[in-house]
Design brief:
By secondary structure, this protein is mainly beta. It has a domain at 19-36 and 63-268: Neuraminidase (6 Propeller). Helix content is 1%, strand content 39%. The protein has one helix and 27 strands. The strands form seven sheets. A five-stranded antiparallel beta sheet has the order 1-24-23-22-21, with no helix packed on it. Strands 2-27-26-25 form a four-stranded antiparallel beta sheet, with no helix packed on it. A four-stranded antiparallel beta sheet has the order 3-4-5-6, with no helix packed on it. The radius of gyration is 18 Å and the shape is globular. The two termini are 36 Å apart.
């Protein structure tokens, strides 16, 4: 079977340029809003990762719910989703402007039909430089081509449609790990799969259920050595982050609780998306904003956003954290460097 994710030379990233079919007008809702944000230090180890007086810079506002940030190194741009508006937006580092990159990004039927959250959620660039998206509206993963066409990678497990794939991460071999909660579904009674799973999709199109133990699996990440899989659960009854050892055959071992965010839930937000730095620390969105958690599960500090915060990713030279929070996009300089950037 034809490989979904060919391991190609990095130069292909530079060739991939999304032009007129995908880039439209400047974002019409662009405006400035004032939100109090700060950095909370809870352990001295935080000093090596971020300055507590680092500026949390607001880049864009006026969106409905921002998600799925991903950095494009070659084009020096950030892509992020606005799920209710069914669009992927682009923030350009040179012009500092936001424009619509693609609309609709997910469900292409009448507005409000078929899906509660019709747009895309998690985004990632594959090893061939093409964008891969979790498509809430169509309950699938797809790959995006230069002309704007979308190719479904997977939309079923054992013949049954997924609920609404939410977030994803790719390992060095091209395997995709993704979560499948019900958040994009208008009516959960039409679910075809009775559980909310975490799955692995190989480059050859083979999908495997890794676990169905979560009530609301959400964000997902890999440790730097790719021997540990992290999953966040956005359940008010159990707002947790778990870690799982990855076996050589791609399955997972018994998971353990990494961090319980229940004591923090007086603050806005639930465990959601995450980014991992080169030392293995989790920059995990959750109650209050972005939780900075050591590989051992110790909470070192928080980037307090004062709004429910959905996701984050490293960008620029790897030492800038981009954050999607409610209707905003922000960034903050870090001392840590994200995975996928040069040491």
């Amino acid at each position: 079977m034809k490989k979904y994710f060919a391991l190609l030379a990095p130069v292909l990233f530079a060739v991939l340029t999304f032009t007129s079919p995908l880039v439209a007008q400047d974002h019409a809702a662009e405006k400035t809003e004032s939100v109090k944000r700060s950095i909370e230090k809870l352990d001295d180890a935080l000093d090596a990762l971020i300055d507590t007086d680092a500026e949390i810079e607001q880049l864009s506002s006026g969106h409905k719910w921002t998600e799925g940030p991903v950095w494009n190194k070659q084009q020096k741009m950030l892509l992020f989703c606005d799920i209710p508006n069914n669009e992927i937006n682009r923030w350009d580092a040179e012009s500092r402007k936001v424009s619509i990159f693609m609309k609709p990004s997910g469900y292409e039927g009448p507005a409000g039909g078929k899906s509660k959250e019709s747009g895309t959620n998690g985004l990632i660039y594959g090893s061939d430089g093409r964008l891969i998206a979790c498509d809430h509206g169509n309950r699938r993963l797809y790959r995006l081509y230069e002309d704007g066409s979308k190719a479904t990678l997977i939309d079923r497990f054992e013949g049954k449609r997924f609920n609404s794939p939410n977030d994803l991460v790719m390992d060095k071999a091209g395997n995709l790990y993704f979560t499948d909660p019900p958040y994009g579904m208008l009516d959960e009674s039409v679910r075809e799969i009775e559980w909310h799973g975490v799955y692995r999709l190989t480059p050859y199109g083979v999908v495997t259920l890794l676990t169905k133990e979560f009530s609301r699996p959400n964000g997902i990440g890999l440790s730097p050595d790719q021997k540990t899989l992290y999953v966040a659960q956005s359940d008010k009854k159990a707002p947790i982050y778990k870690s799982f050892p990855l076996n050589d055959d791609g399955t997972i071992g018994e998971g353990k609780l990494l961090f319980d965010a229940a004591p923090l839930t007086k603050d806005p937000g639930m465990p959601d998306g995450m980014a991992i730095d080169q030392k293995g620390n989790l920059w995990a969105t959750g109650p209050g904003g972005v939780l900075i958690i050591s590989p051992e599960g110790k909470l070192l500090g928080r980037i307090l956003m004062n709004k429910p915060t959905a996701n984050c990713t490293f960008g620029d030279d790897g030492s800038t954290l981009y954050i999607t929070s409610s209707g905003f996009v922000c960034r903050v300089k870090t001392k840590a460097k994200g995975l996928g950037f040069d040491e």
